[in-house]
Design brief:
The chain has 108 residues and is mostly helical. It has 6 helices and no strands. It is elongated, with a radius of gyration of 17 Å. InterPro entries: Phageshock_PspC_N (IPR007168), PspC (IPR052027), SHOCT (IPR018649).
Length: 108
C-alpha cells in the first residue's frame, strides 16, 4: 500500500469517528516521517507504470498514472490539458508516454 493510500485510509477512519483528531495527526505524522520516498521506491513505481486498459479515454496513460500515484485519474487528465493549453508540451509528453509505456497485461 502506498503512502497516499494509507493517508487516505487514515482520513476515512478519522471521518468515520474511529480516530480522534490527536490520533489522526499522530498517525499521519508517523506515516509521513517513516515513509520518506527513496530513489529505490521511485524506480519501483516507475517500473510498475502501465497504461490502463479499463480506465482510458485515449491511450490509458492517465489511468496508469492514477493507479501508481494514488491521484484521481481526472486530475492527471486535467494536468495534461493545462500543460497543452499553457506550455504546449503536454501533448508531446502524453504521446511519448503512450509510445513508451507498455499496456497492462490482460488476465486470461
Amino acid at each position: 500500500m502506498s503512502v497516499s493510500e494509507e493517508i487516505k485510509r487514515l482520513h476515512e477512519l478519522h471521518q468515520s469517528g474511529a480516530l480522534s483528531d490527536a490520533e489522526f495527526a499522530a498517525a499521519k505524522a508517523k506515516l509521513l516521517s517513516s515513509g520518506s520516498y527513496s530513489g529505490e521506491q521511485l524506480s519501483n513505481d516507475i517500473s510498475k507504470l502501465r497504461r490502463s486498459l479499463s480506465d482510458r479515454w485515449l491511450g490509458g496513460v492517465c489511468g496508469g498514472l492514477g493507479r501508481i500515484s494514488g491521484v484521481e485519474t481526472w486530475i492527471w487528465r486535467l494536468l495534461f490539458v493545462l500543460f497543452v493549453l499553457t506550455f504546449g508540451f503536454g501533448l508531446a509528453i502524453y504521446i511519448l508516454l503512450w509510445i513508451f509505456v507498455p499496456e497492462e497485461e490482460t488476465i486470461g
